Amino acid sequence: MCTKATVGSTRDYGSAGRACRQEAIVPKNEATTGAAPGATPSAAASATTEDPKASDGSQAAAAGGVSRKTWATIAVVVIAAWAFAFYTGSTVVLIIVGVLTAVLIGVILWALRTIRKHRSTISLLQGATTSPEARRAALAKLSGAKDASSPTNVFARAQLLAADDPDAALKLLASVELRNYHPSMQDDVSLLQTQLYLTRGRTADARKCADVMNLDNPQRKEIRPFAASIVAEAWARSGKPKEALALLETIELPKKDAEQIALQGRVAKVFALFASNQRGRARTELAELADDDPNQLGRFVLPQFRVHPELQKLARSVFEQHPSARRQIKTQTRRR
C-alpha cells in the first residue's frame, strides 16, 4: 500500500509519491520482458523464463524453465540429424552434425544458466519490496555481483533505487544506452525512465522516453493500460495534450490494479485538459480527485513536480475549498 501524506508536506508527499510509483514499477510490471508473456512480477528487471505451458493448455513439467514440448522437439531434431548422418556414412556429414550438436549443447547450457540467473534476480526483486532494509540488502547483493555492469543488473538496481532516490536511478539507467538492453527490455527501461523524469518535472526528457515505447506490442497487453497512462501524462505535459486525451480513451482497465491505473489516468487527464485550455473541466477533475483523496493534489502543487504555476494555483484552490481540507486546516490550527 502506498502511504499518504498531506498536500502541505513536501518531504512527506515526495516519499509517498515515489513509493506509489515504485509499487507500480516493480511488483506490478508483469509480462514486460523476456521470451514470453505471463512473467512473474518484477520480471522487468530481467528476461523471463519461457512459459511452461504446453500448446494444448495443460501444465507441463519443465526442466530449467523450458517446457517438455521444447525438449522433445530438440531431441527429435538431434536424433534425426544423427540418424541421417549415420545413414549417409559420410565422415564429413558426421563431423558437421557433431559440431552442430556441440554448439547446440553449448547454447542450451548457456540458456539454462541465464534462466537460473534471471529467476534469482526476480526472486531478489520480489523480496526487496517488503521494506527499505530489504531493498538496501538487494541493492548491495546486485552491486557486488560479477555482472554488476550488465544491462539486466543495471535495470534491476535502478528499479530498487527508484523508490528512494529517483535521481540516482536515472543516472544509473543512463550508464547503459537503450540499444544495449535486450529488445524485450527496452520498453520497460523507457517506461521506468518516463516515470522517474515525471517525478522530477523533467517533462522534455519524459517525452523522449515515452515516444520510443511501443504500446501496442502484443506481448505487453497486461502492462499496456498502465504504460499508456504514463505516456499520456508525458505527452500532456510536453505539448501533445490532444494526443494524450485520445490515448486515455483507448485504455481498458484490467481487473488487476484497476484503481491504481485509473488514478494515474485521471492525473494525466488533468494535465491534458489544462494544456488544452479546458480549465473548467480540469478543475472538475481535480475536485473529483480531491473527493477520493485530497493528498493526490500534491502531485500538482509540490515543487519537485515542476507543474505550471497556473495549474498549481488551480489545484491549491481546489484543495483549500475542499471540506476535508478545511477540517484538516482547522485541526492543525487548533494544535498550534
- The unreliable regions are 1-64
| Main sheet attributes: strand count, strand direction, barrel closure | 2 strands, antiparallel
Alpha carbon gap, first and last residue: 31 Å
Order of helices and strands: HEEHHHHHHHHHHHHHH
The beta-strand count equals 2
Stated plainly, the CATH topology is called Serine Threonine Protein Phosphatase 5, Tetratricopeptide repeat
Mean pLDDT: 77
Looking at the overall shape, the CATH architecture is Alpha Horseshoe
CATH class: Mainly Alpha
Helix content: 55-70%
Q: Taking strands numbered 1, 2, ... along the chain, how are they ordered across the largest sheet?
A: 1-2
The structural class is mainly alpha
- Our Rg estimate from Cα atoms comes to 24 Å
Shape: elongated
Q: What's the structural domain tally?
A: 1
User: How many individual helices?
Assistant: 15
Percent in strands: under 5%
Question: Could you characterize the architecture of this molecule?
Answer:
The protein is an all-alpha fold and 336 residues long. Helix content is 65%, strand content 1%. It contains 15 helices and two strands. Strands 1-2 form a two-stranded antiparallel sheet. Strand 1 and strand 2 (66-67) form a beta hairpin. The model is unreliable at 1-64 (pLDDT under 50).
